[in-house]
Automatic annotation (TrEMBL):
Every PIN domain range: 63-182
Protein name: Protein DIS3 homolog
GO cellular component terms, semicolon-separated: cytoplasmic exosome (RNase complex); nuclear exosome (RNase complex); nucleolus
Pfam families: OB_Dis3, PIN_4, RNB, Rrp44_CSD1
Matching InterPro entries: Dis3_CSD2, NA-bd_OB-fold, PIN-like_dom_sf, PIN_dom, RNase_II/R, RNase_II/R_CS, RNR_Ribonuclease, Rrp44_CSD1
Organism of origin: Parnassius mnemosyne (clouded apollo)
Keywords: Cytoplasm, Endonuclease, Exonuclease, Exosome, Hydrolase, Nuclease, Nucleus, RNA-binding, rRNA processing
Every RNB domain range: 464-799
Region (Disordered): 932-981
Biased composition annotated in UniProt, kind: Basic and acidic residues: 934-944
Family, similarity comment: Belongs to the RNR ribonuclease family.
Length: 981
């Protein structure tokens, strides 16, 4: 049997188009109930029990549940609990959920897939007795509600047939739509709200806590604290008229009362300040922004706000003192930023958040405040009767709504992650907070893998270039098991100028990860391997990442090779690419390779190859720097971890050797060579990587700090900037130039992946590397971008076939968005792991160390400990220090503190706030009475004296001259301050 479905749609030209489709209906679709004596079920097709046990006191009889769409969308956390069973999910609901929220749709499919849950998916849209047409003028939502009621009524009738004794399951429709419930009751359908049903469930403690809170309409909010958000129609009209702007809200980590949003038409991000300015936007939300008049524009805040432990209730304090001074604005000031306010929410980007519960001070209270681990997220009010248990746990909470009359958003408890301080629970927090997919690989993914004892088939070797006879080696960090790349170099024997054959050999991951398989889709979702201090979250299963694809020493492996002919001046004469078979002679660490290069007694093939590579790499690097490439830096550290407990035992800054640079140079060269080939053969869909030049405004504070040290840096081009950085040297302060480069790194924009068809040729440029085109080819085990690049390159050289999605620019653009997001989140997760292990290391430890000032804020100094690569705020009391807003320095009596100053600080761990444990930096030197730390024990006094003595070594007269120059500079600054007054 079939019917027709008719659609009316509007074309781009405004014409109305009528579309008629055939819609097939069947009478043999099974109801899924074991209590049914009509449908011809097989034993294994029974999903719903014949006598379902009731757990709800409101319904003391056997029954099945039917859910409407909003119940699934808003109460998925309740549904994921084992409490509810024998549930019918209609096709109408499935399709609506899929259309509105793909993440919840996937979660629902997982529930349906578990046989123990007894969730049955009924195809009501194709059953002849449950399908309904949409009435003329009827809204789609109303039609779907009618379809759900029709299916509920059919089930009740269907199960009653031939059950004359009345012993059959009843139907209960769960819906929170009051109008839908009213109509259902009039039609004789038993129905109930989710809240009433769950609150009467017996035997499942904590289930009520998972109920999502109802949204209070903007127009009905009493005692409003916040302005009402505009309606979608008003927002759309405002954006179309140019009165409003759309952007993503990015909250500040240092100041929860401030955020920014990048919008088109403005060079600088729009500044959003205060409770009213942010107007209930949460980090990641897409918002509608109204730009304030120019006279109301402000500077970004220069204050670091500390987290308050108490709940101030539903009131908003005055924002002005917490943000910026309310003096008249000089619109010519470079630091003045376009300022706006949020007037509407276009799309919420809420997710589940990790954190801890702060139980109410009132005994027996069920309403509590939740503190998220992410500082950019506001506190959340939740209701729970388990506060005594949850107070010691890391928990997961979901946001439900943010009414106008509530200082904080409302949410509900999802689940516990484990005890606070437990290493596994804390790692789980890091992974969840940074949205890192880390579940075990599914059976479908594992089914795509070759057997554990897989070896390279002879027929595959015949298709490839056999390089097993070459002296190929890999050089990686210690403990590396996912070895992506290996190198070789050998002199070419021929007449004329000396030349070398140099090869970069990359693991051929695409041989195993084929397009559109479950393995490929999972790798695309994860996009990158995530490295925490004590664990690794692989992009592909361990069989590939640490075994079959890893270029381990002495084992035959499939590779994708980029081989150059290079002259002795490191000029590339020719380039060729081919799939290959290799057998690495040795897998070395950077330090091992460096020792071989430096050991002149070693004259074997490995040593010779490494020396050629090292010599050529230095020439390649020199060329890059001469072209304007920036040599930047970051404070990277390495932990020594106990092999049994996985607890950190020691931390130190990473050592950079010549071999680090050697490997880097040839990886860069390979990436550039591949990018050039892809752009030539796939001009519309090559996956490339660009690094935009930072806007001049990004350098403002950095340049002012450098000028205070006597250096006028030229940032007009990357080449002039590179030369300026090279020249900015203070001989008696060897770390100064590194510090300068660390700060320069923070002025940069993020490098991003993009599809070549979406940008002009000029936009391909990579600012940091000073090269016109670049991509990622060299790490396919840990980056999905490289997998796509391998597929494109293989198609380019005829080594593999192409496929539709590879050439689809729209698909490539969406892929790049996910790649950029996952790459960024992986970086943040790695940093969070470093912070966690630093806190564990300093749990019972205090250190006195040298430090340097990275930035001067209104109420704090941001300081860096070079020895450990650690940084954090050193708070300054306003009653002792005076902040110079124009020059960015702090004054206390004769002491002036500014960027790049050297200090001595005491490091300790503050665990008073369980959620935000933090390293505390206390000033030791220069000594300020009543503020600087005073050692109490003799041992601490000796430590302080040792550190201070190392800083001002009497053997180094240059150190004394530095101190003298500093006093002179400070005197000049003080005199300038008096003149300004």
């Amino acid at each position: 049997m079939w019917t027709t479905k008719t659609f009316l749609t509007k074309t781009k030209r405004g014409n109305i188009l009528k579309i008629v489709r055939e819609h097939y209906l069947r009478d043999d679709l099974l109801c899924g109930s074991a209590a049914c004596n009509i449908c011809p079920h097989k034993d294994d097709e029974y999903i719903l029990d014949s006598k379902p046990h009731s757990i709800c006191a409101l319904f003391d009889y056997e029954h099945y549940l039917i859910l409407d769409t909003n119940v699934v969308l808003h109460q998925i956390d309740v549904l994921e609990e084992d409490a509810l069973t024998n549930v019918i999910i209609l096709q109408t609901v499935l399709e609506e959920v899929k259309h509105q929220n793909t993440a919840i749709y996937q979660r629902l499919l997982e529930i349906i897939g578990k046989k123990t849950r007894k969730f049955y998916s009924f195809v009501n849209e194709h059953h002849k007795d449950t399908y309904i047409e949409r009435n003329p003028g009827e809204k789609q939502n109303d039609r779907n509600d009618r379809a759900i009621r029709k299916a509920a009524a059919w089930y009740a009738s269907h199960l009653s047939i031939n059950n004359l004794d009345g012993q059959y399951p009843q139907i209960v429709l769960l819906t929170d739509d009051e109008n839908n419930r009213k109509i259902a009751q009039e039609e004789g359908i038993v129905c109930c709200s989710v809240k009433d049903y769950i609150e009467n469930v017996n035997g499942f403690v904590g289930l009520v806590d998972k109920l999502s809170k109802n949204v209070i309409p903007e127009s009905c909010s009493k005692d409003a604290l916040y302005p009402a958000h505009l309606t979608p129609t008003q927002i759309h009209t405002g954006i179309r008229n140019g009165k409003l702007y759309q952007g993503t809200f990015h909250a500040s980590r240092e100041n929860f009362l401030e955020g920014t949003s990048v919008v088109s038409g403005f060079e600088k991000p729009i500044l959003l300040q205060g409770h009213i300015g942010i107007n209930r936007a949460v980090d990641g939300d897409i918002v509608a922004i109204e730009i304030l008049p120019k006279e109301e524009w402000r500077k970004p805040s220069d204050i670091v706000l500390e987290d308050k432990a108490d709940d101030p209730g539903d009131l908003l304090e005055e924002d002005t003192e917490l943000l910026t001074s309310v003096k008249p604005i000089d619109t010519s000031d470079d630091e003045i930023t376009p300022t706006g306010k949020v007037v509407g929410i276009i799309r919420r980007k809420w997710r589940q958040y990790c954190g801890i519960l702060k139980p109410s001070k009132f005994p027996g209270a069920t309403r509590h405040l939740f503190t998220p681990a992410e500082r950019k997220i506001p506190h959340v009010r939740i209701e729970t009767r388990q506060s005594d248990v949850l107070a010691s746990q890391r928990i997961l909470v979901a946001l439900d709504s943010w009414p106008r009359n509530s200082r904080y958003p409302l949410g509900h408890f999802v689940r516990s992650l484990g005890p606070i301080g437990d290493k596994n629970a804390e790692n789980e927090v890091i992974l969840l907070e940074h949205d890192i997919p880390h579940a075990r690989f599914s059976e479908a993914v594992l089914a795509c893998l070759p057997p554990d004892d897989w070896t390279i088939p002879e027929e595959e070797i015949k298709k490839r270039v056999d390089l097993r006879g070459l002296c190929i080696c890999s050089v990686d960090p210690p403990g590396c098991t996912d070895i992506d790349d290996a190198l070789h170099a050998r002199a070419l024997r021929r007449a004329g100028p000396r030349a070398y054959e140099v090869g970069v050999h990359i693991a051929d991951v695409t041989h195993f990860v084929r397009p559109n398989t479950a393995l490929d889709k999972e790798a695309a979702l994860r996009s990158t391997t995530v490295y925490l201090v004590d664990k690794r979250i692989d992009m592909v299963p361990d069989l590939l990442s640490s075994n079959l694809c890893s270029l381990r020493g002495g084992e035959e492996r499939l590779a994708f090779s980029c081989v150059w002919e290079i002259d002795e001046n490191a000029n590339v004469i020719s380039t060729k690419f081919h799939k290959s078979v290799i057998k690495s002679r040795s897998a070395m660490t950077y330090e091992e390779a460096q020792l071989i290069i430096d050991d002149r007694s070693r004259q074997d093939e490995i040593a010779s190859s490494l020396r050629v590579l090292n010599a050529l790499a230095k020439k390649l690097k020199r060329k890059r720097l001469d072209n304007g490439a920036l040599l930047l830096a970051s404070p990277e550290i390495r932990f020594q971890v106990d092999s049994e407990t996985h607890e950190p035992m020691e931390v130190q800054a990473k050592k950079i050797l010549d071999t680090n640079s050697m490997v880097e140079e040839f990886m860069l060269l390979a990436n550039v060579s591949v990018a050039e080939r892809l752009a030539r053969d796939f001009p519309q869909c090559a996956l490339l990587r660009r690094h935009p030049a930072p806007p001049p405004a990004y350098f403002h504070t950095f340049l002012k700090a450098a000028s205070q040290q006597g250096f006028e840096l030229d940032v007009s081009t990357n080449k002039s900037f590179s030369k300026s950085l090279d020249a900015a040297v203070i001989p008696e302060r060897p770390f100064f130039n590194t510090l300068l480069r660390i700060m320069a790194t923070r002025c940069m924009q993020q490098a991003v992946y993009f599809s070549s068809g979406t940008r002009t040729q000029e936009e391909f440029y990579h600012y940091g590397l000073a090269c016109p085109i670049y991509t990622h080819f060299t790490s396919p085990i840990r980056r999905y971008a490289d997998v796509i690049v391998h597929r494109l390159l293989a198609a380019s050289i005829g080594a593999d076939v192409t496929h539709a999605t590879l050439l689809d620019t729209k698909h490539a653009d969406a892929l790049c968005d996910n790649l950029n997001y996952r790459h960024r989140q992986a970086q943040y997760a790695g940093r969070a792991s470093v912070a966690l292990n630093t806190h564990i290391l300093f749990k019972n430890r205090v250190e006195i160390e040298s430090a340097v000032v990275l930035a001067v804020k209104r109420n704090a100094l941001q300081v860096l400990i070079p020895k450990y690569g650690l940084e954090g705020p050193l708070y300054l009391p306003s009653d002792k220090f005076t902040y110079n807003e124009e020059e960015h320095f702090q004054i206390c009596d004769d002491v002036i503190l500014k960027t790049f100053d050297e200090l001595t600080v005491r490091l300790s761990l503050d665990s008073t706030n369980l959620q935000h444990r933090k390293l505390v930096f206390q000033l030791v030197k220069p000594h300020i009475p009543g503020f600087s730390y005073e050692p109490e024990k003799e041992g601490e006094k000796m430590d302080v004296e040792t550190v201070v003595a190392e800083k001002s070594n009497p053997e180094d007269n240059k150190g004394k001259s530095t101190q003298k120059k500093k006093r002179k500079d400070n005197a000049e600054i003080k005199s300038k301050k008096k003149i300004k007054k």
